[in-house]
Every structure is written in C-alpha cells, then in structure tokens.
Amino acid sequence: MNWLGVVAALSGTLAVAAGAFGAHGAEGKAAEWLRTGGQYQLIHAVAALVALRLEARGPGWMFVVGGGVFAVTLYAMALGAPRWLGAVTPIGGALLIGGWLWLAWRLR
C-alpha cells in the first residue's frame, strides 16, 4: 500500500471539508481559521502527491505532517479548543517550509 498517497488523499479530503464548513457553517474568526487551514492543507496534500510522483517521499511526508499540524491546530481552535494551541501552528508551518527546501535540494 502506498501510505503517503493514501494519507495525502485523506488530507485533501479533510481540507475540502474544513474549507467548506468555514465558508458555509462558521462565522468570524472560526470561519477564517477553517478557510486558512483548509487552503494550506489542500495545497500541501497536492504537493505531497507531486513529491510522491517525483519519488521524493521525505518532502512528501513533511508536506502532509506539516499541513496536518498547521491545519488541525486551526481547526481545533475554530471548534473551541484553547487559543494557546495557536502556538503549535507555526511548527506545522516550519515543517512545510522544510519540505519545500528538502524538495528543492532533491531536485537540484
């Protein structure tokens, strides 16, 4: 089984659901967090699939893990989790940046 592909596809699924809820079922800051998380998660789910196609699994995993950490912390706050969880969000962002740098290194 291709776990990176499966996880990337499920990540994309969650991103679309969160973005749709942010656009149609939430208001205020919660809607903004859902849309932002959904956008970043979806972009990086696709990036993970591209990385997989390029046989760059390391960067692909950084994309899905980083996108997940980034987005899920925003989703959790949108659903009422404590705001301090927002301090974890940049860890996901750092993983995403690391994934892009790793991919650039692999493609040099």
UniProtKB/TrEMBL annotation:
Keyword Signal: yes
Membrane topology, record value: Multi-pass membrane protein
Transmembrane regions: 61-78, 84-105
Localization annotation: Membrane
InterPro entries listed in its UniProt record: DUF423 (IPR006696)
First and last residue of the signal peptide: 1-25
Keywords of the record: Membrane, Signal, Transmembrane, Transmembrane helix
Broad class of the protein's primary localization: membrane
Cited Pfam families: DUF423
PANTHER family: TRANSMEMBRANE PROTEIN 256
Family that this chain belongs to: Belongs to the UPF0382 family.
Record's protein name: DUF423 domain-containing protein
Organism expressing this protein natively: Sphingomonas donggukensis
